Amino acid sequence: MFAGLAEQLHAREQEGLRRFRQVLESPQASHITLDGRDYLAFSSNDYLGLANHADLIKSASEGAQQYGVGAGASHLTHGHSSAHHILEEALAQFAGFPKALLFSTGYMANIGVVTALAGREDAIFADKLNHASLNDAAILSRAKFIRYSHLDLAVLEQRLATTHARRKLVITDAVFSMEGDVAPISQLVALCEKYHALLLLDDAHGFGVLGEQGRGSLFLTGRSDVHSLNIVYMATLGKAAGVFGAFAAAQEVVIETLIQSARSYIYTTATPPLLSHILLTSLKLIEQDEWRREALARNIVQLKEGLQSLPWKLLPSSTPIQPLLIGDNVEAMRISHGLRERGILVPAIRPPTVPQGAARLRISLSAAHQPQDIQCLAQALNELTLHL
Ligand SMILES: *Cc1c(COP(=O)(O)O)cnc(C)c1O
Fold this sequence. Notes:
This protein is α/β, with parallel strands linked by helices. It folds into two domains: 20-48 and 290-387, Alpha-Beta Complex (Aspartate Aminotransferase, domain 1); 54-288, Aspartate Aminotransferase, domain 2 (3-Layer(aba) Sandwich). The chain contains 13 helices and 14 strands.
């Protein structure tokens, strides 16, 4: 009965594509213990260094005292705690929208938002490099699914102009997770206005990091009215925010529609309220600790300078995601392994996650990295070029 599965696994292994989990034996941080070995890590989404912050740990135990550990029910059946409610109000205000709605994860938020807002008679327009959760959501919605080449707004406009769909939904990562580049948000907003489309902006990697006080990518546009437009803003709370979860923020009518129809919101147990309690503290640190974003910005500059003389080039990115383009799969693996032997973790990303011939090292920076950490990585990469 399982022969077919075993065969598939074997084939995957033969192609060097089988994935293995390693056991993290320390909290997430810039220095971690993995499978019994210590590493300097450039592989987490903990961009602000909050995942193991003492204030958040204190809030976790306070939250457990106050709310217990399990929500015990879904949001619509008495699992919607005051902790969730307070956090939703704080998130809406922080992100600049009238209302916000918590989801268990970013994956579930995208599934819920897209399937609640688009159906058979509608069309979804999506950047080809969007996160998998947006693609899965589009397929699940049964709407017509139109994908445009990365950032190709001319094609997007042409498709928007010629569609006969009832409702049009444009979905895009705000910061692309394998490239680190930022979508041209002002232009996307303008296009969506012109063609009466709804824009779903997935700011998983921008929230907490970009914009004034870390309020996210929408605060980069220089327009003060974007928050009143046809936008659904989605951000995750397990990356820069350091905890777990996600939210969607939008006009009240959109959020109310999600409460009525987003199945990944309705048919699931609410997250432990103590997580919301921790996230209130996290939100406060995001807002007030400008020095974290400044440290991150300095780390990005230092990395760019340190890697200048390498034969491989960093992709143009101003975000904490700094991909080093290697090209060849085997070479990317060799460098990733070489770093690992030197006690440094940087994942190699290969096709099909990225296009053929575009294998890369995905360097993720954090405010928690010290100048000597960046220097250490730069030196190791420089040493690894000697073996070319
Ligand atoms: C991580 C990520 C998600 C999923 O968020 P989770 O909370 O981890 O489920 C969605 N979209 C993008 C762009 C992401 O990077």
